[in-house]
């Protein structure tokens, strides 16, 4: 199956380097995206540029596409389902949830001099990063990419309710499937509450399983692709 992989904030397509060969071994055609402004050197990139790049990747697939978003990019994966509900066969949300229409894409950290730099590991202490060695943290931080504010401050636009018919797999890393279900049922994830098919799967990792559990993550993506 064609699988489009979108890493979260501060990461480029190389974040999936250990996942891609596992997916290929399982018979899939993965494509790890490097988004505009997030690894391509385009400091003037906007949120709309990132959405356009994702839709271009989806449109270029031979058959139905499985779109996998990580962290903040779960919102982008959901936007792809909204824009291409007839083309996106499934969405996987790894460690994140979809934003609602009209919401800011990524408002958790304020821009500094026109970009949102990686804030260091302090905000992610605890379950998010407990499974990462000091060496791995240093490596990820060294490669982190400051994301243009025109990306992070972009506005989510959702227009096609057919997105609610696109099956969703929630991959739960630093939180449990039970917690994710509770958030959805309590109305904290309104977009998913309207979805007709949501599966919850656990992975024993922190917030960045592509680094700490790449084979296990690939296996879960493979299982979801075949369901």
Automatic annotation (TrEMBL):
SUPFAM superfamilies: alpha/beta-Hydrolases. The keyword Hydrolase applies. Residues 3-219 form the AB hydrolase-1 domain. Keywords: Hydrolase. Signal peptide: none annotated. InterPro entries: AB_hydrolase_1, AB_hydrolase_fold, Sec-Metab_Biosynth_Hydrolase. GO terms for molecular function: hydrolase activity. PANTHER family: AB HYDROLASE-1 DOMAIN-CONTAINING PROTEIN-RELATED, ESTERASE_LIPASE_THIOESTERASE DOMAIN-CONTAINING PROTEIN. This is Alpha/beta hydrolase. It comes from Nocardioides zhouii.
């Amino acid at each position: 199956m064609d699988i489009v992989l979108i890493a979260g904030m501060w990461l480029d397509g190389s974040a999936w380097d250990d996942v891609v060969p596992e997916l290929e071994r399982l018979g899939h055609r993965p494509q790890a995206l490097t988004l505009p402004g997030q690894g391509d050197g385009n400091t003037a990139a906007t949120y709309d540029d990132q959405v356009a790049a994702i839709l271009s990747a989806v449109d270029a697939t031979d058959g139905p596409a499985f779109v996998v978003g990580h962290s903040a990019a779960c919102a982008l994966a959901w936007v792809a389902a909204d824009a291409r509900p007839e083309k996106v066969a499934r969405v996987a949300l790894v460690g994140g949830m979809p934003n609602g229409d009209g919401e800011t894409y990524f408002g958790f950290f304020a821009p500094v001099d026109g970009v949102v730099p990686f804030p260091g590991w302090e905000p992610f202490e605890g379950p998010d990063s407990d499974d990462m060695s000091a060496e791995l943290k240093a490596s990820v931080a060294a490669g982190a990419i400051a994301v243009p504010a025109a990306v992070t401050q972009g506005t989510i636009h959702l227009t096609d309710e057919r997105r609610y018919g696109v099956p969703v797999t929630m991959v739960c890393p630093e939180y449990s499937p039970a917690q994710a279900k509770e958030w959805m049922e309590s109305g904290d994830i309104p977009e998913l509450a309207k979805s007709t098919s949501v599966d919850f799967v656990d992975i024993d990792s922190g917030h960045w399983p592509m680094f700490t559990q790449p084979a296990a993550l690939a296996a879960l993506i493979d299982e979801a692709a075949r369901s």
